[in-house]
Amino acid sequence: MTIGAVLDAMGTRELRANLRAIVEKVEAGTPVVCLKDGQPLAVMISHEDAERWRKIEDSLATLHALDVYPEALADPSELADIASLKPPDRVTVRKLTSEPRAILSPLRTIGVSDARAAFATLVGEVAQGRVRTIVAGGHLAVAVIPAPEYDRLRALARAVSWFRGAGLDLATATEQQVIDFVGSRREKAAGALPQAAG
User: Fold this and answer.
1) Which segments within the chain are labelled E, that is strand?
2) Is residue 110 one of the residues assigned to a domain?
């Protein structure tokens, strides 16, 4: 998983000049921030990691349908009490659900040679919210995502880790597994209430 890994940062000129080597580095697990005038515009992550986050977003959508909003919590440990977890207020829910999720944008590919030739344009498009995937060696290699999207995913990583530790991998779980996980925790809490009272 590259989200949350140590980042390298490079200016657009350096990235353009060394793009093939940087694509290999990103595929190996080191995300790279694309800087322009010292400001982060985009982050390059492995395509594999981008796909993983797309699947996590599906699991989050299922959690939202069950009134569980991990991204609204200050501390993921609050998820331990899913049964009594109160959904956030409507304003927060509206804000969370309307927040752009660039990671879910349609797959738009570009070859590494074309990406190098038009790198400034590519980074400009990504900075406006359009994810691009660089193809290298005949395979989908690197996703270039907007810097704010990387920050959003990095903030979610703690909640994703909590679920994994609790026995539910949001990156591989089916919709039914998410529903069963939440239902099971709610049932256990409901069963514990009469015992505590008695």
Assistant:
1) 8-11, 32-36, 39-46, 109-111, 132-136, 139-146
2) yes
Read off the pTM.
0.88
| Total tally of structural domains belonging to the chain | 1
Other beta carbons within 10 Å of 21:
9
pLDDT, position 142: 97
Distance CA 7, CA 5 (A): 6
> How far is it, in rounded angstroms, from Cα 144 to Cα 116?
13
34 assigned to some structural domain: yes
C-alpha span between 92 and 95 (Å, rounded):
5
1 in a structural domain: no
Mean pLDDT of 76-83: 88
- Distance CA(146)–CA(130), nearest Å, equals 8
Q: What is the rounded CA–CA span in Å between residue 117 and residue 129?
A: 21
